C-alpha cells in the first residue's frame, strides 16, 4: 500500500474543505471496500478524510411516513431498525444477505452505495479494465464472465454492480442526498448510477468531490415486500441474480408493483417493462412469466452467462408468486 495522509473531519463543511482535490483524495467511513482496493493498488489516494465523527448516523422519520437514513449508519444498524424491518422488510433482508456480520458492523450506507465492482479483472492490475484504466479494454469479454452482465452492457465493460442494499433501495424509489462546496443536492436512485455506455470508469452522477449525507425512503408501498438472492454459496457471496419486489392486489387486480433486479447489469436494474405489464392484470403464473419475458427481451448474454436470463425469469415469477400468496392470506 502506498503512503497516504489521514485527517479527521469534525463537520460536513470541514470534510469538504479537507478533501481538496477529489482526484487525489477519498472520504473514509467503514472502509470495508476502499481499504481493500488500496491494499491491492487499485485505489491509491494521497489523502483519506475520515467522516465517522460527522453527525450522519441517525435514522429519523420524515413526517410523511418515510425515513431519513444518515450516510454513516452502519449496515447492521439499518438492517435491524424496527421501522426498516416493519415498513421496508425487503431492505432489511437485502442487507442481511450481504457480506458477513463483522463487515456489516463496519460498512456504512453511503459506502455501500459507492462500492466498486467485484469483477476479478478490475482487481487485477495486470488485466485490461476500462473501469480501472479507461481505454485499456475489458478482459472479461473473452475471459471468465459467468457472473457478469446480461443487460445494458457494452464492449467497454460487462461488470455488474455488487450492492444488495442498492437493489432494495431502487425498488423503494429512494433518494440520495449529498453536499458539495456550493450546497446540498439530491438524486433519485434511478438517476444516481450512470449507464455503462456513458463511461465505465465513472459509475455515478454524484458531483465530483460530493459527500453523501443521507438516503430518503419515501412512505412504504402498500403491498408486502421481499428480497431474494441467488448465489454460489450461502454466505459472503455476491448475487448471481437477486430481486427486490413489492406488489399490491386490489379487487383481484395488481395495483402498485415494484421490481428491481441485481447481479445482471452495471447498476441496480429497475424492471419497468415488467411492472407496466403487470399493472391492472389478474395475478397468475402466465402473467408473471409474460412480464418477466418483456423485461428480459433485451438481454444479451455472453457465451458463459446465458443461464442468468432463465435464472432472472424464474426468480421474478417465484417471488411474485410468494408475494401474491402473502397478499391473499
How would you describe the overall organization of this protein?
By secondary structure, the protein is of the alpha+beta class. It has helices spanning 12-19, 34-40, 75-80, 82-87, 89-96, 101-106, 109-114, 120-123, 165-171, 272-278, 285-296, 307-327, and strands spanning 5-8, 25-28, 47-50, 59-61, 67-70, 175-180, 183-188, 211-217, 225-230, 241-250, 253-262, 269-270. 30% of the residues lie in helices and 20% in strands. The longest helix is centred in the last third of the chain and has 21 residues, at 307-327. The strands form 3 sheets. It has a 5-stranded antiparallel beta sheet. Strands 9-10-11-12 form a 4-stranded antiparallel beta sheet. The protein starts with a strand and ends with a helix. The chain is globular, with a radius of gyration of 20 Å. The mean pLDDT is 96. It is built from 12 helices and 12 strands. Helix 5 runs antiparallel to helix 9 (165-171).
Task: Identify the notable features of this structure and list them briefly.
329 residues, alpha+beta, five-stranded antiparallel sheet, 12 helices
Based on CA inertia axes, which overall geometry fits? globular
Strand line-up of the largest beta sheet: 4-5-8-6-7
Poorly predicted regions: none
How widely separated are the two ends?
56 Å
Provide the residue-averaged pLDDT.
96
Structural class: alpha+beta
Strand content: 15-25%
Rg computed from alpha carbons, rounded to a whole number of angstroms: 20 Å
Please give the number of β-strands.
12
Helix content: 25-40%
Please write the string of helix (H) and strand (E) elements: EHEHEEEHHHHHHHEEEEEEEHHH
Number of helices: 12
Largest sheet: 5 strands, antiparallel
